[in-house]
Design brief:
single chain, globular, 7% helix, mainly beta
């Protein structure tokens, strides 16, 4: 995969997101293209591209946060997934399954609102993968692992104490630690 082929949209919020920031698509601020959903953030150069103008608010401090990152220590590869699925599901957020209440028939079912299916988050998406003594959600590890020449930097200087820095050809990223709540 070349840097031109990297699809930053997989690091954005889903289309149904309705929060205080405009995070449904990558955006450009001061010569860098960013994508984030709040748990993972990525930055690539966007030299000569104008800043993104959107309805809503962009996270203006994201550039300052990335500017404070200093790579250091030893870079490591992403550990193996220990038997969990290796296929990345589209966004790894939700999959449609037959409604257990109506058996997929729909109708007047209050559980699925008559659709016959409900959306569920796959169990493995929220499990943690231990890296350098912390847990990170598999759904995010699956997203970053195919970036070209991705490396994790557990000892990098980072303004977020709950994050691990990762680098890849053409960019840099932050992955927040899995919360226990």
């Amino acid at each position: 995969m070349t840097t031109e082929e990297i699809d930053l949209e997989m690091f954005c919020m889903t289309p149904d997101y309705d929060g205080r920031y405009a995070l449904k698509a990558p955006f450009v601020i001061a010569g860098y293209r960013y994508a984030t959903d709040g748990a993972v953030a990525v930055r690539m150069e966007a030299t000569g591209e104008p800043d993104t103008v959107v309805e809503g608010k962009l996270p203006a401090d994201i550039g300052e946060m990335f500017a404070k990152i200093k790579l250091g220590g030893e870079a490591i590869d992403i550990p193996p997934h220990n038997g969990l699925p290796t296929e990345f599901h589209d966004k790894w957020f939700r999959v449609a399954v037959d409604c257990s209440e109506c058996g997929g028939s729909g109708g007047n079912c209050s559980e699925c609102d008559g659709k016959g299916s409900i959306d569920e988050v796959p169990e493995a998406g929220y499990e943690g993968l231990a890296i350098a003594g912390r847990n990170y959600a598999h759904q995010y590890i699956w997203r970053i692992r195919d970036l070209p020449n991705v490396k994790l930097w557990p000892k990098a200087k980072c303004p977020r104490k709950d994050a691990i820095v990762f680098s890849f050809d053409g960019g840099l990223g932050l992955l927040m630690e899995l919360r226990e709540d």
